[in-house]
Amino acid sequence: MKRNWTVPALATTFLVSSMCAAAPVEDQAREERLLAEAAKIHQHAITLDSHVDIGGARYATSEMDPGIENPRLKCDLVKMSKGGMDGVFLAVYVGQSPALDEVGFKAAYEAAMVKFEAVHRLTEQMHPDKCTLVTSADGVRKAVKTGKRAIMIGIENGYPIGTDLSLIRKYYDLGARYITLSHSGHNQICDSSGPEQPMHGGLSEFGGRVVAEMNRLGMMIDVSHVSEKTFWNVLRMSKAPVIASHSGCTALNSHDRNLTDEQLRALARNGGVIQIVALGSFLKADSPERRQAMAALREELGFQRLRRQDRQAMSAEQREQMEKLYGVFQERIKEIDDKYPTADLKIFVDHIDHAVKIAGIDHVGIGTDFDGGGGIRGFNDHSEARNVTVELLRRGYSAKQIRKIWGENLLRVWRQVEKARE
Ligand SMILES: [Zn+2]
Predict the structure, then answer these.
(1) Which of 162, 173, 271, 376 is deepest in the core (most CB within 10 A)?
(2) Where does residue 49 fall: left (phi above 0), alpha (psi -120 to 50 degrees), or beta otherwise?
(3) How does pLDDT run across 345-370, given as a tens digit for each residue?
(4) Distance 184 CA to ligand 1 centre (A)
């Protein structure tokens, strides 16, 4: 999911504020022990987030610097350090025009290049002292040992492959190590979970060749966003385990972006991993009252989501005006949040719990979708990553299990995908 405007991160002290108020002394002592234990786990674990969005051409420039604690970003290198996060897959997300034609494919290719350049600018020119581009599973630990953040690349939406299989190799050479086969619309590769009506009935014939080529190169196949039929087709065809880079559990919230228990069990048999998403509306459905309140607020402020073309055509002044308005909008949403609460850290961890119960501890990880709509109370940016660990500890997970969730499971899949390479 994409947001047109980045929301300033809230300095949420979810755990502390929820425990301090009149908590007995022994409760506080226990919470402090949990925090210390979480800090220790983060020191030794490899902690990875499989899905974070980035802006376009402005990302990794002085206008949007991920090397400082940037209020416009939920994921930046400072917040990662603060929260004990070692690595992140940045998404080369590309939208699509409805037409699956050469004009659209060419524009998408160019849009993908802009984002690849932004990531390379980050790791090679802007902050090579703080982070490094990693292109292999073993490279992650090496990077972490040097004290740098590991930056990986995933492509979100196979649309920019067009009909040219050789572009997969090109993207691989630029550092991409997974491709989410579709976004929220059907593309030339497969059906998406978004639209009601199917287009191909799963993977297209070309999509089958994309899966084979990704297997051949050693790229992870990402089934977040694809339709159920596509999911089953991919699992049957892929020679290597697959990932769902940012999805939740249908059993807890029936949303097209989530996986059913049957899919979770199949993912486990496949050896793959579901990376639980931290995007509120995937985790918990909005109540009708909340939806109504949101609509009324939009109406009152005259706030509408703008199309990309409109945004690009704005003057600096108009842009500033719009950002200001969006700031007001976000402030007012807080009132609605208080009245009709959305998903929070506990609900996020409920999804982890459920996935572990159904698929097993070896098949669950974390993919936040920060800066693409992700972020919930208690885990609103990377500086709050330890809160997740504390909540897992509170529910009885061992350090070993938590290390699996935070990164070892994803690294295992990545290694297997590398091994299956021809
Ligand atoms: Zn997405």
Answers:
(1) 376
(2) beta
(3) 999 999 999 999 999 999 999 999 99
(4) 8
398 Cα to the center of ligand 1, angstroms: 30
Instruction: Compute the distance from residue 268 Cα to the ligand 1 centre, in Å.
Output: 22
Position 23 scores a pLDDT of: 64
30 Cα to the center of ligand 1, angstroms: 37
Query: What is the DSSP code string of 371-415?
Result: TTTB-BBTBSSGGGHHHHHHHHHHTT--HHHHHIIIIIHHHHHHH
Give the per-residue pLDDT at 309.
61
Which of 354, 337, 352 shows the shortest CA–CA distance to 14? 337
Taking the centre of ligand 1 as the mean of its atom positions, its distance from the CA of residue 225, in whole angstroms, is 7
Distance 197 CA to ligand 1 centre (A): 20
Q: How far is the CA of 33 from the centre of ligand 1 (A)?
A: 36
Tell me the DSSP string of 17-76. Answer: HHHHTT--HHHHHHHHHHHHHHHHHHHHS--EEEEEE--STTBTBTTB-TTS--TT-SS-
Determine the distance separating the centroid of ligand 1 and the alpha carbon of 239, expressed in angstroms. 24
How much distance in Å is there from the Cα of 158 to the middle of ligand 1?
Answer: 12
Instruction: Map residue 295 onto helix, strand or coil.
Output: helix
Separation of 317 CA from ligand 1 center, angstroms?
30
Look up residue 303 and give its two tokens: 């706030």
For residue 143, report the distance from its CA to the centre of ligand 1, in Å.
26
Please answer whether residues 187 and 201 qualify as being in contact, where contact means their C-beta atoms are separated by less than 8 angstroms.
no
Place of tokens 């090579």: 128
Neighbouring CB atoms inside 10 A of 178's CB total 27
Dist. CA 187 → ligand 1 center (Å): 15
pLDDT score of 17 more than 60: no
156 CA from centroid of ligand 1 (Å): 7
More confident residue, 245 or 325: 245
| pLDDT tens, position by position, 34-90 | 999 999 999 999 999 999 999 889 999 999 999 999 999 999 999 999 999 999 999
Q: Which residue is listed with tokens 């108020």?
A: 21
Judge if pTM exceeds 0.85. yes
pLDDT tens digits, 93-116: 999 988 999 999 999 999 999 999
Q: Could you give phi then psi for residue 218, rounded to 5 degrees?
A: 85, 40
Q: What is the C-alpha to C-alpha distance for residues 240 and 247, in angstroms, rounded to an integer?
A: 20
